[in-house]
Specification:
This protein is α/β, with parallel strands linked by helices. It has helices at residues 3-10, 15-27, 44-53, 72-80, 97-100, 116-128, 154-159, 165-171, 188-201, 212-220, 226-240, 248-274, 282-285, 290-295, 300-306, 312-330, 335-342, 346-356, and strands at residues 34-37, 62-66, 104-109, 130-131, 140-141, 144-150, 174-177, 209-210, 245-246. The protein folds into 3 domains: 3-179, 3-Layer(aba) Sandwich (Rossmann fold), CATH 3.40.50.300; 184-246, Helicase, Ruva Protein, domain 3 (Orthogonal Bundle), CATH 1.10.8; 261-362, no CATH class.
Length: 363
């Protein structure tokens, strides 16, 4: 993204975004480490790209890595690179992301999910400004500007023993905090304009045309997925109402239809996976919530005696998949928000999605 494109998404009317933009312009020209905190989908990567775009390193690379999306056994080689023969399958020397970002900016997104052993190694890089590839011995200069971000409360993570206190103070040099979209609804009209323009540039020739009532409806909606969720809603509007004016009724249908459908699909999948265990009829089960239904499924012994070939692992996998798809549907595919809804760590949910081959687009 160009400097102007990034600026447009940050130059918004809410006081919190005005303050954030002021902080970005002040710190960008320095080499200071920037720490961005805010909910998932609130625009943390835009802030990171703005810091890069407004800096003297703008001509260098901007390298982004999601610390929670890369398996822990691969994260070290992804960051530091590896020498030929460093491990099984390493048939050639591989440049890591730190080297790729030389002369530019390295953006560590969701750093709160970084494993503790990797936190130690990152701290050493920041203190010594050098690193070695996995399996290597030669020190390589770390010529990077570091920008970190997370949706987590890192101080709480430190208190819980999940994040190193010394690394927290090392990266929390210049904090920039972003509010969720629910707390800056005055930004929504401008964001609607920007997102629709971006959709046009991405191949949508016939855009939906929101009337003022539609924008008002968007301002009154709930946005647990923040700007990412708003973009999804507008993209669906363009698919459903190409070239048409839309009002509050259309927005209401778009924002609620999917949730209703997902709840129905989740209920049906859950009932199908548990059918035969509960000592109650399927019809009455459909009127119960999942927790109450499970609580009344008491006659497991009788079921197992008569089940024939019953595979517990397959059975529970179906239950897990139903809940994961249902949670993702509730939050427009936001993995972080779905993890909170399910009471899971974000990395645990990512692993389960990978295991069951569940994509965000399925939500």
């Amino acid at each position: 993204m160009t400097r102007d494109e990034v600026l447009r998404y940050l130059d918004l009317p809410s006081p919190s975004m005005r303050e954030a933009l002021d902080l970005i312009t002040r710190v960008a020209s320095t080499q200071t480490t920037v720490f961005i905190n805010g909910p998932s989908g609130s625009g943390k990567e835009f802030v990171a790209r703005a810091v890069h775009a407004f800096s003297a390193r703008a001509s260098g690379a901007f390298v982004a890595v999601n610390c929670g999306a890369i398996p822990r056994e691969l994260l070290e080689s992804e960051l530091f690179g590896s020498e030929k023969g460093a491990f099984t399958g390493s048939v050639k020397t591989r440049v890591g992301l730190l080297e790729s970002a030389a002369g530019g900016t390295l953006f560590l997104d969701e750093i709160g999910d970084m494993p503790l052993d990797m936190q130690v190694k990152l701290l050493r890089v920041l203190e010594e400004r050098s690193f070695t590839r996995v399996g290597g011995a030669q020190a390589i200069k770390a010529d990077i500007r570091l920008v970190c971000a997370t949706h987590r409360n890192l101080q709480a993570r430190v208190d819980e023993g999940h994040f190193r206190e010394d690394l927290f103070y090392r990266i929390n040099v210049f904090p920039v905090t972003l509010d969720g979209l629910d707390e800056r609804r005055e930004d929504i009209p401008r964001l609607v304009e920007l997102i629709l323009k971006r959709l046009r540039s991405q191949g949508f020739s016939d855009l939906a045309r929101p009337r003022p009532a539609a924008v008002t409806a968007l301002q009154g909606a709930d946005w647990p997925g923040n700007i990412r969720q708003l973009r999804n809603v507008l993209e669906r509007a363009c698919v459903l109402y190409p070239g048409q004016e839309i009002g509050a009724d259309e927005i209401e249908r778009i924002t609620h239809r999917r949730k209703i459908a997902e709840r129905q699909e989740e209920t049906q999948a859950l009932l199908a996976s548990l059918e035969g265990i509960a000592p109650i009829s399927r019809e009455s089960a459909e009127t119960l919530g999942a927790h109450e239904f499970l609580a009344r499924s008491e006659d497991v012994g009788a079921f197992l005696r008569n089940a024939g070939e019953f595979n517990f692992r397959d059975h529970m996998a179906q239950v897990e998949m139903a809940f994961i798809r249902g949670a993702l549907g509730e939050v427009d595919g936001s993995v972080s928000a779905a993890a909170r809804m399910l009471g899971l760590q974000r990395t645990t949910l990512i692993e389960k999605m990978r295991k069951y081959e569940i994509q965000r687009e399925e939500a």
